[in-house]
Amino acid sequence: MNFDPTDDRRMLADSISRYLADNYGWEHRLKIAYEAPFHDPQKWAEMSELGVLFALADESAGGFGGAGFDIYTVFSELGRALCPEPVLPALMAAKLLAAAGEDLTPLLSGKTRYAVAIGELSAPYDLDEIETEASGDTLSGRKSVVYGAHGADTFLVAARNGDTIGLYAVAADAARLTTYGLIDGGSAAELFLEDTPARCILSDAAAAFADAQDAGALALCAEAVGAMDTCKDTLLDYLKTRKQFGKAIGSFQVLQHRMVDLTIEIEQARSITILAASRMGTPEQSRTVSMAKNLIGRVAKQIAEESIQMHGGIAMTWEYPASHYAKRLIMIDHQLGDTDYHLQRVMAANQAA
Amino acid sequence: MDLNFSAEELAFQNDVRAFLADKLPREFADKVRANKELDKAELERWHAILNERGWLAVTWPVEYGGTGWSPVQRHIFEEECCRANAPRIVPFGLHMLGPVLIKFGTKEQCDAILPRILDGRDWWCQGYSEPGAGSDLASLKTAAVRDGDHYVVNGQKTWTTLGQHANKIFCLVRTSKEGKPQQGISFVLVDLDTPGIEMRPIKLIEGGYEVNEVFFTDVRVPLANLVGEENMGWTIAKYLLTHERTNIAGVGFSVQALEQLKSLARQERRNGKRLMDNPLFAARLSEIEIDLEAMKITNLRMLSDAQKNGAPGPESSMLKIKGTVIRQTINDLARRALGPAAAPFPSEDLENAALAPADHMHNAAEYFNNRKISIFGGSNEIQRNILTKAALGLS
User: Fold this and answer.
1) In whole angstroms, how far apart are CA B249 and each of B127, B245, B302?
2) CB A73 within 8 A of CB A9
3) Which CATH number fits the domain that encloses residue B226?
4) Which of A55, A111, A294, B222 has its CA at a distance of 20 to 30 angstroms from the CA of residue B79?
């Protein structure tokens, strides 16, 4: 039993953390997060050189990582700095392309950007419920809130193909898109497929999509843990410096005990995410990821809301970074399955026995 | 990161399992599973079985007859004991006084007292809290005044768990009124046969008797029964709080309770369906299961730190706060799962009436009794005060 990261992962975490601190300052972050194209190609290339993308795939696919704890390492650091770059779609695309036996080099080197289109308006999380259909070499349907779509080169799309769900590659210039910015930074798009040309790269891809969704959910959990750590540091610092009634507000027990509770919940959130990372690639993967995503959903909401409340008015302002952390922590629950969705998956496992 | 036990630890786990399968009396496990109390003779018999194997004093070094186990080994042992529904080791002599004597006592005290704890000749109980000194323990008033080669003790202790079985008590007493309240406290050992001591049982919320009041009137205690130096009792009390927090999260108990709850939810039927298939109940159960899964890892993370640093940090207060709340929530669901059948006082007549599954007759009593776990050993509010200072640096 050992909860220390390996030396390699510690070095990776340090280099991502240092890079983002030195090169992705807060003002720059705000600009990228909230203004088109919601992406900085130069920083993307530099992050790729650091290994941010190579860490997401295993050696057989041309990367140097790909395990649960690699995902945990990368996304915790991205979350700590609230980095808005679309790394999550890259992770999910890497999983899908590897499952299909495709060449990952263009993705891992940062040259080609992919967006993954699974969810639909009436089936935001559940692969089994999607309606988009393949007919020959074309797709028809609508994919909703496709993250990282803006500026993506290729879409990896889930579509019905008779009794199976297939994985299709759609060139960006072949698709009709409506892109928009997101309330917590970054962008997404509606993807309208109207007899759109597509290349089937894996005809029975349900398992591959489930695996990519699990990996993505784990990444979101890790991102939330990193963001919560920063959120807590900021709040604690504020409690020590902000004075009211002639003393630091951190001297009031009503805030002290709430701060302790937040600290405990963050450790619980970290623990369940570590557990989920450790179970990737095992038969327990999906159930444990759902446990993690459910707890993260609950804790992230508590941290976000308490951070705003305990700060007071300042955390209601755009100017104060904690407000943006709070937004991200809340909106993570809207990606790849929310608290209720994942609780139902855990319930289903209990009811099956 | 590696969440698995080492090969040696797994081998140890197998030894513990084999021992429990072989030596734990079935009737004890049946009682523990059903949340029934074990009587004094049964608890003593279990201690003797463990002592025979050399596994009674899990926190003591080998030279004093302890196991010398690492924190991880202790954890594995506790986990397996919970899984097997073994009775809990009575902690006062073994987990509390023993380590205090080994750290602060004289060699004579260790030699005279520790063997009697191991072989069961002495049953110790604890005299810390007083009617006017609960969370504010340092304000305790029970006084020990020197008179020749004795202290004369006057005052009242309370919440003395299983005092009715004990022949000895270790107490925090006031030996000085100078300086801060913490600076005038001493740790003394008292023979319960000494004239002037009266023990009265306190009936608890669910109707059981496990705690007592202890009254001291001109009780003469030899000066040799002082542990450590006079007026350093607070240091000893704090040592106990930070060092002897094995299983403070109660994860093993919660794991066992959750397994029983799941089994109950699959047996109980409501309107032709299993309770487990009621989405509201299944959601509550699954949510607490998730909290417990996280707690298991939080517990292991802190254990791993303790293994590295020699002692758990103030973070162990987190385990107590969250661990007790999780356990209480499971108790709450186990009570609710029975519906009206949770209401009767447990009795043997009712067991024959099969009102509720036999192992669950005590669910309501257990729920009420376990409201104590977020109060004793430093209430969860006191734990938050500790964390405020030690983990957050707020004052």
Assistant:
1) 23, 9, 11
2) yes
3) 2.40.110.10
4) A294
Residues of chain B neighbouring A344 (CB-CB closer than 8 A): 283
Rounded to two decimals, the ipTM of the complex is 0.96
Report the distance separating Cα B282 and Cα B150, nearest Å: 61
Q: Is residue B167 part of a domain?
A: yes
Amino acid at A217: A
Chain B residues lying within 8 Å of A69, measured CB to CB: 1
- Which candidate in B79, B130, B210, B244 is catalytic? B244
Distance from CA of B101 to the nearest CA of A (A): 31
CATH code of B371's domain: 1.20.140.10
B244 catalytic? Reply is yes
Domain shared by B264 and B385, yes or no: yes
Show which residues on chain A lie within 8 Å of chain B, measured between beta carbons: 1-6, 69, 236, 239-240, 250-251, 253, 256-257, 259-261, 263-264, 267-269, 271-272, 274-275, 277-278, 288, 291, 294-295, 343-344, 346-347, 350-351, 353
Which of B46, B72, B89 marks a domain boundary? B89
Q: What are φ and ψ of residue A162, in 5° steps?
A: 70, -125
**pLDDT tens digits, A70-90:** 999 999 999 999 999 999 999
Q: Nearest-CA residue of chain A relative to B290?
A: A291
pTM over 0.90: yes
Whole-angstrom distance, CA of residue A199 vs CA of residue A197: 7
Q: Judge if B39 and B128 occupy the same domain.
A: no
Question: CA-nearest residue of chain B to A236?
Answer: B392
Is the Cβ pair B3, A257 closer than 8 Å? no
Domains in chain A (CATH in brackets) are 7-108 (1.10.540.10), 114-205 (2.40.110.10), 207-352 (1.20.140.10)
Residues spanned by the domain of B48: 7-89
Is the pLDDT assigned to residue B241 strictly greater than 80? no
Q: Please name the residue that has the structure tokens 């040259």.
A: A111
Q: What is the pLDDT at residue A329? A: 98
Please say whether the beta carbons of A291 and A276 come within 8 A: yes
